[in-house]
Design goal:
The structure holds 2 protein chains of 2 kinds.
Chain A: H1 17-28, E1 33-34, H2 37-40, E2 57-59, H3 64-77, E3 81-84, E4 101-104, E5 111-115, E6 120-123, H4 129-136, E7 141-142, H5 155-161, H6 168-171, E8 178-184, E9 190-194, H7 205-209, E10 218-225, E11 227-228, E12 232-240, H8 243-255, E13 262-267, H9 268-278, E14 288-296, H10 298-314, E15 319-322, H11 326-337, H12 339-346, E16 349-352, E17 355-356, H13 362-376, E18 380-385, E19 390-397, H14 404-421, H15 437-443, H16 446-459, H17 474-483, E20 485-486, E21 489-490
Helix pairs in contact in A: 1-3, 9-12, 13-14, 15-17
Chain B: H1 6-19, E1 23-26, E2 41-44, E3 51-55, E4 60-64, H2 69-78, E5 81-82, H3 96-102, H4 109-112, H5 115-118, E6 119-125, E7 131-135, H6 147-151, E8 160-167, E9 169-170, E10 174-181, H7 184-195, E11 201-206, E12 210-217, H8 219-229, E13 232-233, H9 237-245, E14 258-262, E15 275-279, E16 284-288, H10 293-302, E17 306-311, H11 325-338
Parallel strand pairs in B: 1-2
Antiparallel strand pairs in B: 3-4, 4-8, 5-9, 6-7, 6-8, 10-12, 10-13, 11-12, 14-16, 14-17, 15-16
The chains are: A alpha+beta, B alpha+beta.
Chain lengths: 498, 353
């Protein structure tokens, strides 16, 4: 496998495990600790299950005071800590470290308050994303960010990863929908970031902590913004004879001043897989289909649909359908939502990548993905959050074939490098974790990486929180750079090679 | 007025580092009134200007820090687009860099996002004179810490912003402002009720007598909504919001201390004597008062919010809500992480930053 812990990212300590368990036990009790191999097993990986590591100890605190105590004890003894929510992350952000404490926030599963007047929900980090919207529904409110794992993923993990979803173009990412968080820093201090209003005093630490992948602090409480549930939503399904035409149509929609709530695109390989599986009624001969949803008050949705239908026709759509009611709307979406399981049916395994590109570069990027796909002999389907440029190539493979996963990861890495080359990024919403840590060396120069490390030290000087994730050491990049030469230019020429 | 002065700005930062002289960063100086007085020699950024790229169909614009806000807005207007956060200018020559450093957002903020929400990426100089680039020109990007958004509202104390990429939005086809005469309690209650219902709002303010509600959307939608929403149509609605944004409204035409208080929108009337103006549906409150700074900070904090002396003099130089010791030390750590020699705008945000 491509990812290995780099020696420079290890946090060595010589603490005796039994002795340390005793120390933790004083704070969280024996019910709050797991240490037998069989009990540790469920924590060995997150949603990126290709990578597994048994944690040293699992701690399951129930109160903020216990989190503070665990972190203080770990800090005192130089023991690394990895925080974990539901473990649905796709980049290995919650992968344990072998000599560290895996801090599960599973017991923090309470919705503390729904403040109807201020349209906010104050929740503990282990609350599931969808549970917030369910609790807010009686007030006609909901929480907008909807990552595809929303039925299982927790809000703490959403904040740590700055999760997205299919409605980001109109409603933003997690960072746009969180008002306040309370975090515990590695030295056990409890801090409140943000405020009860739309901003907080001083530096925007709320923005900084969002998406920091558990490297800066442990999130113990979150206040999110709730929005009124749109009274009306309808979706258009447009089919196109080429990916280019579909891309042009999406561009034309945005250019016309429309802001769809969702704007999704799928290529033919995905359409076929999905149709076989979910029977959403997709035209299986189309080279690409676009789903375009509008929500809001009925009159606005109607005028938007009218405009969008015209645009799709002018842009050469071979077919345009409009959902006629809630059941059909859900059916159109069912296909899109089944894209991943459908890929799992036509292939023994699939690997979901996540990069963002400027939308206009889509045809070129898809062409290059097709070339890479042919070169590696691995089929790739593409699902595209077209509205915000977030591309999810699904690489189909068979993990039982020796060496195939390694080739998949290499192909995935190349795809991400194409994203960076066209002015995009290696991750739109899944995070870096361990999965893309090498590609961070491609996206950022040594000075930016050094600045990231300086930020990290401002919160966690000993580097104990989630070591080896998200931000590569310069040593890692030096070694990775030695393998990857870009345009004849070696990355980080200023560093010694090993 | 397009010029790339990034190299000379970098040299100035390196020189200041070598000489150990702090820098006071200024664009056009339109926001010099805001914040504590910084010390140091002037680092002028207004010359570093020009729009570097604008892709209407990607909803992104990238410009140098010295670019005038008005220039950006007129380029966007040609393509029917706007800056969603409706930034106040406070001067004809207001620049992009100053707007972002102050983190100012206008009346549209609760409905369309803030300056930091729209920040997609930036290039800046840190205190070592390194030119760093974070984020980018795409909407969704979670690679590395969100350093670009951290720059917004940092009052230039963490770095010299050189360029920024911002998310833009289509200008609504039609906007209509309607008014309702209400008491303050009724106004707070109505504004918050409307926000929990799916009205297409884009502005919600209360001047002490009347609520002003701005409705946005397609012609058809705004017409239909107005029939249900009611209210008295304000003929010059656009002018009202612009005057509010630029603080040209009558309320702001007075000397004395003007406070900005940010808190949960449904918070009842705060117990501080003075005149109040409510924006952001109640979440942003302007207060003219002679009350001591201490009393305003205390009232804001008790309501879970924070206060800043926007214009005027607090007597003891305190302008921003005091931070607790733990937050203060984290701020100091971050300041050192970006600007270890303490070159940038020392004292502008807090005394020891």
């Amino acid at each position: 496998m491509v990812y290995r812990v780099h020696p420079s990212e290890r946090v060595p300590h010589r603490v005796d495990r039994d002795r340390f368990l005793q120390l933790l036990c004083e704070h969280v009790g024996s019910d709050g600790l797991l240490f037998d191999a069989e009990d540790l097993r469920p924590y060995e990986c997150d949603g990126l299950s290709a990578y597994r590591e048994l944690p040293w100890i699992v701690a399951l605190p129930e109160t903020i005071e216990q989190v503070q105590a665990v972190l203080r004890v770990c800090r005192e003894h130089g023991v690394p800590v990895v925080a974990r929510g539901a473990g649905t992350g796709l980049s290995g952000g919650a992968l344990p470290v072998a000599n560290g404490v895996l801090l599960s926030l599973a017991k923090f599963n309470r919705i503390v308050e729904i403040d109807r007047a201020n349209r906010t929900a104050r929740v503990q980090p282990g609350v599931r994303n969808l549970a917030i919207s369910e609790a807010a529904a009686p007030y006609g409110l909901y929480y907008a960010p909807d990552p595809s794992s929303q039925i299982a993923c927790t809000i703490g993990g959403n904040v740590a990863e700055n999760s997205g979803g299919v409605h980001c173009l109109k409603y933003g990412l997690t960072v746009h929908n969180v008002l306040e968080v309370r975090i515990v820093t590695m030295d056990g201090e409890l801090l409140t970031l943000g405020g009860s209003g739309y901003d907080g005093p001083g530096y925007d630490l709320l923005a900084l902590i969002t998406g920091s992948e558990g490297l800066l602090g442990v999130i113990v409480e979150i206040t999110v913004k709730l929005l009124p549930i749109p009274p009306c939503a309808q979706v258009l399904l447009a089919a196109f004879g080429s990916v280019e035409a579909a891309g042009e149509a999406v561009t034309a929609i945005i250019g016309a001043g429309l802001v769809p709530a969702g704007l999704e695109m799928m290529d033919n390989i995905t359409i076929r897989a999905v149709e076989d599986f979910a029977h959403a009624g997709y035209p299986i001969d189309a080279a690409a289909i676009v789903l375009c949803e509008f929500d809001g008050i009925a009159e606005q949705v109607e005028s938007d649909l009218l405009k969008a239908r015209d645009i799709f026709r002018t842009q050469g759509a071979t077919e345009v359908r409009q959902s006629t009611g809630e059941a059909e709307r859900k059916r159109f979406w069912a296909g899109r939502k089944a894209a991943f399981p459908a890929a799992g049916r036509i292939s023994p395994d699939y690997y979901c990548m996540d990069g963002t590109i400027p939308r206009k570069r889509l045809p070129e990027v898809l062409r290059r993905i097709a070339e890479l796909s042919a070169q590696y002999g691995l089929a790739v389907g593409n699902v595209f959050h077209a509205g915000d440029g977030n591309l999810h190539p699904l690489i189909l493979y068979d993990a039982n074939k020796p060496g195939e996963l390694e080739r998949v990861e290499e192909l995935g890495g190349k795809i991400l490098e194409v994203c960076v080359e066209v002015g995009g990024t290696i991750t739109g919403e899944h995070g870096v974790g361990v999965e893309k840590i090498n590609q961070m060396c491609v996206q950022f120069g040594a000075a930016e990486l050094a600045q990231f490390h300086a930020v990290k030290r401002a919160f966690d000087p000993a580097g104990l929180l989630n070591p080896g994730k998200a931000i590569p050491t310069l040593h890692r990049c030096a070694e990775f750079g030695a393998m990857h030469v870009h345009g004849g230019q070696m990355a980080h020429p200023e560093l010694e090679r090993f | 007025m397009n010029a790339d002065l990034s190299e000379s700005l970098r040299q100035a930062v390196l020189d200041a580092g070598n000489a150990g002289t702090p820098l006071m960063i200024a664009g056009s100086g339109s926001k010099a009134f805001y914040g504590r007085k910084a010390t140091g020699s002037l680092l002028e950024t207004a010359g570093h200007s020009g729009i570097l790229s604008y892709e209407p169909t990607e909803l992104v614009i990238t410009a140098r820090c010295g670019t005038r806000l008005s220039a950006i807005e007129s380029v966007l207007a040609e393509r029917g687009q706007i800056l969603p956060f409706e930034p106040p200018h406070f001067g004809q020559n207001a620049t992009l860099g100053g707007t972002l450093a102050c983190g100012f957002s206008g009346p549209r903020r609760p409905f369309a996002g803030s300056a930091r929400d729209c920040m997609l990426g930036c290039r800046f100089l840190n205190g070592e004179g390194e030119m760093l680039s974070f984020g980018g020109e795409v909407m969704k990007n979670v690679a590395g810490f969100d350093v670009s958004r951290l720059m917004v509202g940092a009052m230039g104390t963490l770095g010299v912003i050189l360029e920024a990429s911002l998310k833009v939005a289509p200008k609504p086809e039609r906007e209509l402002t309607v008014c309702f005469e209400r008491s303050v309690e009724q106004a707070l209650s109505a504004m918050n009720r409307w926000c929990s219902e799916p009205w297409p709002l884009s502005g919600l303010a209360y001047d002490g007598t009347r609520i002003f509600a701005r409705l946005s959307g397609s012609e058809r939608a705004v017409d239909a909504v107005y029939r249900k929403f009611g209210g008295e149509v304000l003929e010059k609605g656009d002018a009202f919001w612009e005057d509010l944004r630029e603080q040209r409204h009558e309320f702001f035409r007075a000397d004395g201390n003007l406070w900005r208080i940010s808190l949960a929108p449904a918070t009842p009337v705060l117990d501080v004597p003075g005149d109040w103006f409510y924006d952001w549906g109640g979440a942003l409150r302007w207060l003219k008062t002679d009350a001591p700074a201490e009393a305003v900070f205390r009232a804001a904090e008790a309501a879970g919010g924070h206060a800043a002396l926007f214009r005027g003099d607090s007597g003891d130089g305190q302008m921003f809500q005091p931070l607790n010791e733990r937050l203060k030390s984290l701020h100091a750590n971050l300041k050192r992480a970006f600007d270890p020699k303490g070159l940038f705008n020392p004292g502008r945000l807090y005394e020891d930053l």
